[in-house]
C-alpha cells in the first residue's frame, strides 16, 4: 500500500496539487485544517504532511508559523507550486453570468484585479476545492469558484477564465513535514537549515544574535517574528539559513545565536528547491 501524505483542504486543493507534483508516489490524504493535517502525521495516519507557509502575492499563511514549532514534526523538504487561479463555473455558464466567486481568504487577493474588472464579488470559503464542490452541487450559473484545473476535473466544472491571478509568478511555498528528522545532505544543490528561537531580554539581543551569521558568512534567507502565548513581550522568530548544521560556519553562527537566546530549536534540514531562486528571477 502506498505511503500517504496529508494536506489541508479537499481533493482538488492547491495542497493536493503540491502533493501530486512533489510526492507522486504517495496517496494524498485530505484534512480540514492545518491542525488536522499535522495530527494525521503525528498519529501515523500519514507519513508526511504538506503545509503551505507563504504565497508570493498574499504573504505568509496565518497561524502556520505558530503551529509548526509545537507540532513535534520535522521539516524534511520544501515544494513550490505555481498557483494558477481559474474561474470555474457549472456547465453551460458564461463569464458574463457570474456575480459571485467563492474562494479561500488567501486566494481572493491574488485575483482581486480580475474580479474588480468583471464586477464579480468575492465570497470567502474555507477551502478552494470545497468552493468548487459546492458550486458544482448548487448548479447556479451565477456562482463560480476560484480553484485549480485539477478541481475542475474532479467536480465536473468548466474553466470560464484561465490563469486570472494578478501576478504572473504567483507561487505558494509548502514545507513537507515528517515524524522523523532527516539530517542527510541530499541533492546536488545547497541545503537549508530551519529553526525557531526567542532572544534573551537584554538590550540589542536580536542585533547581537544576528551578528554571528554575518561574521561567519551565513546567508539568512528568512526571518519572521510572531507573538507566543498571547504575550506582547514574548516574541518568537522563525528563521532559515543556507547551509547544513554540520558546516563549520553554520555551527559557529548557531553557537553565537544560542548565547543570546533563551530558546533555540532546530526545525529541519532540507535541500533548497530550485524554484526557491527561480521565483525571484
From TrEMBL:
<dbReference type="GO" id="GO:0005737">
    <property type="term" value="C:cytoplasm"/>
</dbReference>
<dbReference type="InterPro" id="IPR002912">
    <property type="entry name" value="ACT_dom"/>
</dbReference>
<dbReference type="GO" id="GO:0004664">
    <property type="term" value="F:prephenate dehydratase activity"/>
</dbReference>
<feature type="domain" description="ACT">
    <location>
        <begin position="194"/>
        <end position="271"/>
    </location>
</feature>
<keyword id="KW-0584">Phenylalanine biosynthesis</keyword>
<dbReference type="InterPro" id="IPR008242">
    <property type="entry name" value="Chor_mutase/pphenate_deHydtase"/>
</dbReference>
<dbReference type="GO" id="GO:0009094">
    <property type="term" value="P:L-phenylalanine biosynthetic process"/>
</dbReference>
<keyword id="KW-0057">Aromatic amino acid biosynthesis</keyword>
<feature type="site" description="Essential for prephenate dehydratase activity">
    <location>
        <position position="172"/>
    </location>
</feature>
<dbReference type="Pfam" id="PF00800">
    <property type="entry name" value="PDT"/>
</dbReference>
<protein>
    <recommendedName>
        <fullName>prephenate dehydratase</fullName>
        <ecNumber>4.2.1.51</ecNumber>
    </recommendedName>
</protein>
<dbReference type="InterPro" id="IPR001086">
    <property type="entry name" value="Preph_deHydtase"/>
</dbReference>
<feature type="domain" description="Prephenate dehydratase">
    <location>
        <begin position="4"/>
        <end position="179"/>
    </location>
</feature>
<keyword id="KW-0028">Amino-acid biosynthesis</keyword>
<dbReference type="InterPro" id="IPR045865">
    <property type="entry name" value="ACT-like_dom_sf"/>
</dbReference>
<keyword id="KW-0456">Lyase</keyword>
<comment type="pathway">
    <text>Amino-acid biosynthesis; L-phenylalanine biosynthesis; phenylpyruvate from prephenate: step 1/1.</text>
</comment>
<dbReference type="InterPro" id="IPR018528">
    <property type="entry name" value="Preph_deHydtase_CS"/>
</dbReference>
Amino acid at each position: 500500500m502506498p505511503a500517504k501524505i496529508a494536506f489541508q483542504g479537499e481533493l482538488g486543493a492547491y495542497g493536493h496539487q503540491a502533493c501530486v507534483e512533489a510526492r507522486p508516489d504517495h496517496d494524498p490524504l485530505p484534512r480540514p485544517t492545518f491542525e488536522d493535517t499535522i495530527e494525521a502525521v503525528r498519529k501515523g495516519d500519514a507519513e508526511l504532511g504538506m503545509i503551505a507557509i507563504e504565497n508570493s502575492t498574499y504573504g505568509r499563511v496565518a497561524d502556520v508559523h505558530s503551529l509548526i514549532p509545537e507540532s513535534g514534526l520535522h521539516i524534511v523538504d520544501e515544494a513550490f507550486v505555481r498557483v494558477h487561479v481559474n474561474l470555474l463555473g457549472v456547465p453551460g455558464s458564461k463569464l458574463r453570468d457570474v456575480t459571485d466567486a467563492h474562494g479561500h481568504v488567501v486566494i481572493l487577493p491574488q485575483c482581486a484585479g480580475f474580479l474588480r474588472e468583471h464586477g464579480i464579488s468575492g465570497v470567502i470559503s474555507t477551502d478552494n476545492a470545497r468552493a468548487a464542490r459546492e458550486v458544482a452541487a448548487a448548479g447556479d450559473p451565477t456562482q463560480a469558484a476560484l480553484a485549480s484545473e485539477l478541481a475542475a476535473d474532479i467536480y465536473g466544472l468548466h474553466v470560464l477564465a484561465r490563469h486570472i491571478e494578478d501576478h504572473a509568478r504567483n507561487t505558494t511555498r509548502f514545507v513537507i513535514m515528517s515524524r522523523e528528522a532527516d539530517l542527510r545532505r541530499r541533492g546536488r544543490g545547497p541545503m537549508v537549515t530551519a529553526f525557531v528561537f526567542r532572544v534573551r531580554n537584554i538590550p540589542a539581543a536580536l542585533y547581537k544574535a544576528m551578528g554571528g551569521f554575518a561574521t561567519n558568512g551565513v546567508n539568512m534567507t528568512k526571518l519572521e517574528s510572531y507573538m507566543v502565548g498571547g504575550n506582547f513581550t514574548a516574541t518568537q522568530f522563525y528563521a532559515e539559513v543556507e547551509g547544513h548544521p554540520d558546516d563549520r560556519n553554520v555551527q559557529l553562527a548557531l553557537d553565537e545565536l544560542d548565547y543570546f537566546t533563551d530558546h533555540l530549536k532546530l526545525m529541519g534540514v532540507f535541500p533548497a528547491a530550485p524554484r526557491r531562486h527561480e521565483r525571484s528571477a
